[in-house]
Amino acid sequence: MAGIYLHIPFCKQACTYCDFHFSTLLKNKPELVKAICKEIELRKDYLATKKIESIYFGGGTPSLLSKEELQNIFTTLSNYFVWDKQIEITLECNPDDLTKEKLQELKSTGINRLSIGLQSFNDEELKWMNRAHTAEESETCVKLAQNIGFDNITIDLIYGSKFQTIESWKQTLQKAIDLNVQHISSYNLTVEKKTKLGIDVLKGKEKEVDDEKSAEQFLIMIEMLEKNGFIHYEISNFAKTGFIAVHNGNYWKGEKYLGLGPSAHSFNGNTRQWNVANNNTYIKALNEDGAYFEIENLTPENRYNEYVLTGLRTIWGCDIAYIQNNLGTEYVKHFIDEIEKQNISLYEKENTVYRLTKKGRLLADKIAMDLFV
């Protein structure tokens, strides 16, 4: 089965660190939803199967969509795809949007998983990030969602900022644990060139992220969350038993997905496709039957490199049996030759599967690059 990702490119305001495609101008939101619905129709045959097991609204801030806009999208999707009975439907949302009334609306549409962008429990840090919510709202909205009946909630946290000490990070993790959510996604703060943070670092107004402190916080996070019943199934993702995200898991396993909306990416096993990252251009192209995406045919080298990059980030690891069956003996030989050059403490082997150790996870991207062809 496959999944569908919808990129909703609207935000109330720009976070200092974010380099995802979004706009703070909401006036063309209705036109964009209409264009997404048309794209659904046009791309109904992109996936080899019509049956989908996950729908994910990302952004941007999808919680800015109205109930009617969500229902329009769901109606169009149901016209062209068959939904698995246990389908996971996730919507990313911000705490400041999650009133009791909004949560009831979201639940009534069939959304059964919330991804709430808390990021921090520190008001000073939230202000520095230019987030629109407070630390109090971070905790209150989760409890409110639970009271409404949402029993599959993930929260986002960011570590590595100048506001965090080792002790304050432990306190943040404990607060997250105490919220009794089913899933936690936690990302190391990165400095992207075109963001406000990136510009401030370039001008010397802000310092680069301290990699040593981030590494220590990463290892503390693994220890604390695993002790409290979370499975560390991907570098940045932790889930309680039975709550590994279908969307996240399938992405890292290399399953097929259709991406809809400006800047959304798609993958069907043989090609990778990405939409234009401009709202007006996207809407105009869909209205006028114009071109709104680029496409890349994947070579065996592309497929091997992507499998290694994604597989090593997960508990599923890289399976040389998979490489043999899908790519051939030469890629198996290359993988084994190169991984045996690595420090043995960075990985572990179980039958035909190679996984990274905790130490190795700190260097996942570099290790993967060393294994590329």
Structural topology:
Layout: E1 2-8, H1 29-42, E2 51-59, H2 67-80, E3 82-93, H3 100-108, E4 113-119, H4 123-129, H5 135-148, E5 153-159, H6 166-178, E6 183-188, H7 196-202, H8 211-227, E7 230-234, E8 237-240, H9 246-253, E9 257-260, E10 265-267, E11 271-275, H10 279-287, E12 293-297, H11 300-311, E13 318-319, H12 320-326, H13 329-339, E14 347-350, E15 353-356, H14 358-361, H15 364-371
Question: What features would you highlight for this structure?
Answer:
373 residues; alpha/beta; TIM Barrel; Arc Repressor Mutant, subunit A; 2 domains; 9-stranded mixed beta sheet; 3-stranded antiparallel beta sheet; 15 helices
The gist of it:
The chain is of the alpha/beta class and about 375 residues long. Helices cover about 40% and strands about 25% of the residues.
Commentary on this structure:
This protein is α/β, with parallel strands linked by helices. The chain folds into two domains: 2-253, TIM Barrel; 300-371, Arc Repressor Mutant, subunit A (Orthogonal Bundle). The mean pLDDT is 96. The relative contact order is 0.12. Helix content is 41%, strand content 23%. The chain starts with a strand and ends with a helix.
Kindly identify the CATH topology of the largest domain: TIM Barrel
Uncertain segments of ≥5 residues (pLDDT<50)? none
**CATH level-two architecture of the largest domain:** Alpha-Beta Barrel
Provide a count of the helices.
Answer: 15
**Total E-strand runs:** 15
| Number of domain modules | 2
* Biggest sheet details: 9 strands, mixed
Helix content: 40-55%
